[in-house]
Amino acid sequence: MSYEEGQRRLLNLFDEAESDFSVESDSDIEIDNVSKRSYESETEQELDAQDEVVEESTETAEYESEGKRQYFTGKDGTKWSIMPERSNVRTRSENIIREKQGVKKMGQNAKTVIECWQLFFTDEMLHEIVIHTNSQINLRREQCQNSHAKKYVMFDITVTELKAFICLLYLSGRLRSNKLNLKDLWRSDGSGVEIFRTTMTQQFLISVHSKCLAIR
Fold first, then answer.
1. In this structure, is residue 126 part of a structural domain?
2. Where is the region Disordered (predicted)?
3. Which of 61, 77, 127, 139 has the fewest CB atoms within 10 Å around its CB?
């Protein structure tokens, strides 16, 4: 078969297929368009309804999650929420912190532990404690009949000795020795704590702590 014959055969097949094809009427096309628009409108309504259901369910879920919010409760009864507050909610006026962040001016120059501690216990406070403690020691000394105790135990303390006494209290708490016998801390057989017996005698600490310390 030549090229020209092949082209003529294709044209004949195309004409036959075009004659068999029936063109739809304008009314049928209009009905189809109406049906298509009706279907699209119904679909849009269904989608809108689904969106409303999703929005309602979302709002309900948020409300339920807020109602079932869990908390950590502190020893003083303070409740700490596990989940953070929503960022799109306005903060209450009583919860707004207006103070500047950071250390206040009086504590900006404190660099060591001692300097920070002295911000809470000033020299004036320590001197006041020493004055009243020594007054109590004098009263005990006058009532005491033991000359040895008067000489080696019941003597006035200084600010330095008061600081050493407070330091031993801190250290005792750090070592969790509140349930130990006081003698165990002063033992010299290797089971005690060396810093206790090198700082002051056990009798002096007992005298200051249980009888003479007037911190009121």
1. yes
2. 33-68
3. 77
The tokens for 203 are 């009798």
Q: Residue 64 pLDDT more than 50? A: no
Q: Would residue 192 count as lying in a domain?
A: yes
Tokens standing for 39? 């279907």
Strand partners, 80: 72
Total tally of structural domains belonging to the chain: 1
- Residue 173 belongs to domain spanning: 113-212
Angle at 62 (CA atoms; ends 59, 68), nearest 5 degrees: 140
Which two structure tokens, joined as six digits, stand for 129?
Answer: 């404690």
**pLDDT tens across 193-210, in order?**
888 888 888 777 777 775
Closest C-alpha to 66, from 56, 58, 76, 75 = 58
Pull the structure tokens for residue 155: 């003597």
